[in-house]
Amino acid sequence: MGGFASLYVHFPFCETKCHYCDFYSLGREKTRDGDAPLFAQALRREAELSAGALAPTIQTIFFGGGTPSMTPPEEMERALEPLRLQDRVTPTTEWTMEANPSSVELETLQGYRKLGVNRVSMGVQAMNDELLLRLGRVHSRDRAIQALENLFAAGFTNVSVDLLCGVPGQTQAHLTEALERLTAFPITHLSCYLLTLPPHHRMYKDLPQDEEQLAHLLWIDRWMTERGFDHYEISNFARPGREARHNLAYWKGDAYLGLGPSAHSFDQIGKRRWKNVSSLHKYASILTQENRLPREQEEHLDSRQEELERWMLALRLAEGFPTDWLDSDLRKKRAEHFQKDGLLERHPQRDGRFRLTARGMALSDSVITALSG
C-alpha cells in the first residue's frame, strides 16, 4: 500500500447534531471535557502510522465532518504534523474544508488559509429562518450571509455552498430566493442534496411527494445552468473548471486515504475498501493504547461489486459512459427504453457516449440498477 494522492480527514465535533444527518458526529451535548485533546492526540498518532502511505505529492485534501471549522487551525496543524503536508502540497493542490455559518470568524478563516486550505464548502442548507429551524440548524439566514462575506473577505476565491431540497414546507419560491441570494456572491460551486429520512423519522410523513421533489430538482437544474454553472454530477453544479476535484476522485474510482473516526479509504490497485471505527473513544483507545490503525471493516471488491460501481460512478457524472458499455442486447434494449422516457441521451458534446438527462439524474437509481444488471 502506498502512494495515496487524495486525503480525507474526519473531524467529528459539531455544535449540535442535526436530526437528519447520517454522518458520524458528536454535538456538544454528547461530548465530554477532554474529548477534543483526546481526538487531537489520536489523530496525530494515526497520522504517524499512515504517513508512509501518502504520495510524495498530494492532489486533493478534504477536511470533513462533523464541523472542521470548530477546530482551530493551529490544532489541525499540530495533529497532522507527521504527514508533512507542507512538503506534499503544490500550488495546484485542492485543499477543501467544510464549515458551518455559525462557526467561522474572519480571524480563524485567515488562519485556515495560512495552513493551506484554499477551498471552503459552506453548509448553508437553506436561506429561510423557518426552514432552518425545521432542520435544526443553529444559524440564521443573516448569519449565513455574514459567514459568506467573511469567507470572501478572508481571501477565499473557491467557495462551495450546500443547499437542501425536499424540505417539508419548502416551496419553489424558497429555492429561488436562496439561489438568487447565494449566487449574488462569487461562489464557484453549489451542492444541492435531496433531504432523505428513514420511515421512523418524525418528519418523514411531511416530506414532499415525489412529483414535487422532481419538479424542484429540475427547476434548480434549469436555474443554475442558465447562469453558467455546469450540472456535472447528480447533486453538484460548478463554474467551468471549478468542479470538486476531491469528490471527482471518489466518483472516478481513484484511491484515497481517510483519517479520523468513521473515515473511509479505498485502495484502487488492490480493490480494497476499509473504514475506521465510528466511535471517538474506541478510535482513540486503539491508536493510543493498542498502537494500531483503528480499522473496523475491510472488504475486497468482487467482480459483481466492481461492475455495479462502474455503472453507478459513471452515471453520476455528466460525462456519462462509452457506447461500447452497452455490450448485450438486454442493455441496448434498456438504454433505448430510458432514451424514450427522457432519462438517457446521447452525449451532446462527446461522440460515442451516453449520459443521463437532468430528469435522469433525479431518477438515477432505476437506470443504474437496470444497466448494471
Overview of this protein structure:
The longest helix is centred in the N-terminal third of the chain and has 16 residues. The protein has 373 residues and is an alpha/beta fold. The strands form three sheets. A nine-stranded mixed β-sheet has the order 7-8-6-5-4-3-2-1-9, sandwiched between helices. Strands 10-11-12 form a three-stranded antiparallel β-sheet, with no helix packed on it. A three-stranded antiparallel β-sheet has the order 13-15-14. Helix 1 packs across helix 10, helix 7 packs parallel to helix 8 and helix 12 packs antiparallel against helix 14. Strand 10 and strand 11 form a beta hairpin. The two termini are 31 Å apart. The chain has 14 helices and 15 strands.
Q: Helix count?
A: 14
Q: Radius of gyration, rounded?
A: 21 Å
Side-by-side strand order of the widest sheet:
7-8-6-5-4-3-2-1-9
The multimeric state of the shown protein is single chain
Helix content: 25-40%
Report low-confidence residues grouped into runs of 5 or more.
none
Query: What is the H-and-E element order?
Result: EHEHHEHEHHEHEHEEHEEEHEHEHEEHH
Strand content: 15-25%
Taking the alpha carbons of the first and last residues, their distance comes to 31 Å
Q: Structural class from helices and strands?
A: alpha/beta
For the largest beta-sheet, the strand count, sense and barrel status come to:
9 strands, mixed
Mean pLDDT, nearest integer?
94
Total E-strand runs: 15
Shape: globular
